[in-house]
């Protein structure tokens, strides 16, 4: 059976920054018939639930991995190390689970694919990927944003 890595919040785990989840019927349809590895990179990286909102500053997840951008909370606290550690743990979980792709939470500084918040905390989106999405893509695991959320 094929396996897929899925953001834990999409599977009903209340691990988002606001302490909630984002489970949706479209998620269950998208993963039907596959082994699911649920994972939250932010929690795995050592961040609490709930936690302060965080956004990418100075670029996207690829830039964070290259050391030219960072992840900061709305208070200004730098949480780049936690996001990078969580991304590495997500990659390990995907590999250990035999995942051939990932279905991740849209717009997230960890899991976003194709669009992420711009770092202003004003709800503005810019093209780019989150840290975990970028790392998975770099290692040959295709990432797609979750439908319906």
From TrEMBL:
Pfam families found in the cross-reference section: 2-thiour_desulf
Protein name as it appears in the record: DUF523 domain-containing protein
């Amino acid at each position: 059976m094929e396996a897929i890595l899925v953001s834990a919040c999409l599977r009903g785990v209340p691990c988002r920054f606001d302490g909630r989840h984002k489970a949706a019927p479209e998620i269950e349809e998208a993963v039907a018939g596959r082994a699911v590895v649920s994972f939250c990179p932010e929690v795995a990286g050592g961040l609490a639930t709930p936690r302060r909102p965080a956004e990418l500053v100075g670029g996207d997840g690829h830039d964070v991995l290259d050391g030219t951008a960072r992840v900061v909370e709305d208070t200004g606290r730098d949480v780049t190390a936690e996001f990078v550690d969580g991304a590495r743990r997500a990659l390990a979980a995907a590999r250990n689970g035999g995942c051939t792709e990932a279905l991740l939470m849209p717009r997230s500084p960890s899991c976003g694919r194709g669009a992420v918040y711009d770092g202003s905390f004003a709800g503005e989106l810019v093209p780019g990927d989150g840290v975990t999405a970028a790392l998975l893509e770099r290692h040959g695991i295709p990432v797609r944003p979750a439908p319906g959320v």
